Amino acid sequence: MKTLGNILWHFPFLGFLSALYTLIIGLVFIITVVGAPIGFGMIQHSKFLLTPFSKRMISDSKLNEDKSTLWKILSVIAFIIYLPFGILASIVTVIQICLLFISIVGIPVALVLAKSLSTYFNPIGKVCVDSELADELNKRKAKEKADKILNL
What distances in angstroms separate CA 87 from CA 38, 65, 83, 127, one per listed residue? Predict the structure, then answer.
């Protein structure tokens, strides 16, 4: 089913073009020093857009990737600069999602856009991973919460 979703995403809906322009935007952001955190997030988002039904975007903090203090400061500065564009991109994406849900054929594309909505708002610190890995991380987090509650 995931493979069929990825095929439908690319051929009738030209999903590979979305991945291409997201990659190009990410590369342009990487050229600037301040935009590098945004650029790396956009490149991860372009990886997601290549196979959206078998991948997920998660925060890199879930993978326990430690970043340097300088990288964290640069990420905050980049987020402040990117915030107006992120809000605009999110609003446009929500409108697209609503319009795509009107037709049955557009529902798979709307689901892809809905899955990536948080990345459009803030691409900083996002990583593209397999769906199975994201599910496993969520299960471990839920187990930790349950253990914490039950041990009280």
Answer: 14, 26, 6, 20
Among all chains, which residue has been given the structure tokens 């935007």? 25
Q: Tell me the C-alpha distance between 133 and 75, whole Å.
A: 25
Number of Cβ within a 10 Å radius of residue 27: 13
- Tokens of residue 112, six digits: 């892809």
Number of Cβ within 10 Å of residue 46's Cβ equals 21
Digit-coded pLDDT (tens) for 114-150: 988 888 888 888 899 998 998 898 899 889 888 888 8
In this prediction, residue 3 carries a pLDDT of 82
pLDDT mean values, one per 10 residues, the chain (152 residues): 80 83 90 88 91 88 75 85 89 89 86 87 88 90 88 73
In which element (H, E) is residue 121 found? helix 117-121
Give one DSSP letter per residue of 63-113, joined into a string: GT----HHHHHHHHHHHHHHHHHHHHHHHHHHHHHHHHTTSSTTHHHHHHH
